[in-house]
Amino acid sequence: MKWFGGSFAPALSCAVFLALIPRVSVADQTLFQGDGTTLSAGLEVGAYYGHTNHANFGVGVIDFRTSAQRSSQVDAYEGYLKPHLHGHTDTDALGSFYSRLSLVAAISRGDVDAAGITRGSEEDIDSEEMVGGWRSGNLLAGLGKDALDISVGAQEFQTGDGFLIWDGNNDAFQDGAYWLIPRDAFERSAVIRLNTGPVQSALFYLKADRDHDRAEFGGINVDYILKDTLSFGAAYMDFFDADDRLTTRNGMKLADLRFKLDKIPHLPGASFSGEYVHQFGTNRGTRIEADGWHLTARYDFKSLPWTPFVRYRFAKFTGDDPSTPEFEQYDSLFYGYSEYGDWYQGEIVSNLLLANQNQRNHMVHIGAQPRAWLRLDAMYYRFDLDQRFANRTVTTNRHFADEIDLSFEIFLSRTSSIGALYSAAFPGQAAVQSVGGNKTIQAFEIFAIFTF
Q: Which residues contact 142 (CB under 8 A, 6 or more apart)?
């Protein structure tokens, strides 16, 4: 345990503490029920400890705001409380009305996080969701019950499996809890959803938080879902305002296509999925031409002990070619977490270095569930640059890094779990040339999420 140095003792103590916590109920507590109205409340609690060695391949953490260089060995602690309140009223003549209210109290301590986003002194209490809505009930009987759903306020919104749109709050800087990402809601929204069975659509306006450059955009999303077998999705979005401090979004438009095939004749364990995003438009006279896409294949060995599975994915996100007048760097926008490796691709490289931009990556993911309450995962990534240009440096080689991630997760209930991850990222020539370090980044992390 020499590698952990002085961090092993607190890490072990945290792990023991988390393992001793009893199983948790996931049911919200009903506060009031009567006359068609229900009011319920619940609480989500999260905790995290992470130790990173040789951050930035040994160069050390670079403060995102000041570019100051810090230690290459960091310990970070995070925690949050997220209480929520749900209300719902049914009427015979006017459909139903609902509301959701939640807030997040988050804290970060220790050193800066390894990405240099937080400094270990953040504390923040702020509202998360604050949304009201109406569902049509049986008013549109020909389309089905609750076919129409209209909502406004601060709320979560997702397209597909979160490859493009999911997390409207970046949990960065003074927010705290950068790794735990307890906040997902867009700051403002107006969403009209229409659900007519296999076809589901949404017309939306969304505004992200300040750490997402307060990007404002509108669009339409359509999904065709054939039971649990096949689904297709498409979306169009237009960004009409943004601060453009961190990214280039004002004036950007995009088109998105995706599919998922879950049941294939004679291959009952196989599934395939993919998504393609084309970004275009003009930002302050500069033409945008960028693309991001992936193809994923998975096979579940359902008849074997532990029900293991294997996944392979290739993903590409274009980088900007400095020799052309167009801006070709793909904007990863508001992706979220839906599965290990989706869409934080590589615990180290995705969180700390490339973040779904200017890269071509291969992933091999093997997982198993020895018990209903235990999951094991192992992932390998190879990261190559799309353009031989990173960190304002031209590189002679595309190979940026290789990464392995090993994890286990213990499920205490459907929505409560504790787990641990070990990750190592090995620098390629492109990383050595652009970042400046040549050491292996290692990270050990433990986390707990409880829903009461």
A: none
**310 - beta bridge partners?**
299, 366
CA distances to 78, 331, 383, 392, 441 from 322, rounded to whole Å, are: 39, 16, 21, 10, 29
Q: Say whether the peptide bond before residue 343 is cis (omega within 30 degrees of 0).
A: yes
What is the CB neighbour count within 10 angstroms for residue 92?
A: 8
Do the beta carbons of residue 187 and residue 241 sit within 8 Å? Answer: no
Residue 10 is inside which H or E element, if any? Answer: helix 8-19
Burial of 237 (0-12, 13-18, 19+ CB in 10 A): buried
Determine if residue 147 is left, alpha or beta; phi over 0 gives left, psi from -120 to 50 gives alpha, anything else beta. Answer: alpha
DSSP label at 349?
I
The 3-state DSSP class for residue 249 equals coil
Q: What is the pLDDT along the chain (452 residues), one digit of tens a residue?
A: 333 344 444 444 454 444 444 444 456 899 999 999 999 999 999 999 999 999 999 999 988 888 888 889 999 999 999 999 999 999 988 999 999 999 999 999 998 888 889 889 999 999 999 999 999 999 998 899 999 999 999 999 999 999 999 999 999 988 999 999 999 999 999 999 999 989 999 999 999 999 999 999 999 999 999 887 899 999 999 999 999 888 889 999 999 999 999 988 888 899 999 999 999 999 999 999 999 999 999 999 999 999 999 999 999 999 999 889 999 999 999 999 988 999 999 999 998 899 899 999 999 999 999 999 999 999 999 999 999 988 889 999 999 999 999 999 999 998 899 999 999 999 999 999 999 999 999 999 999 999 98
Structure tokens at 237: 């979005």
pTM of the model: 0.91
CA–CA dist 298, 312 (Å, integer) = 6
DSSP state string for 250-308? TTEEEEEEEEEE--BTTBTTEEEEEEEEEEEEEETTEEEEEEEEEEEEEEE-TTSTT--
CA 194 – CA 215 distance, rounded (Å): 25
Identify the H or E element spanning 195. strand 188-195
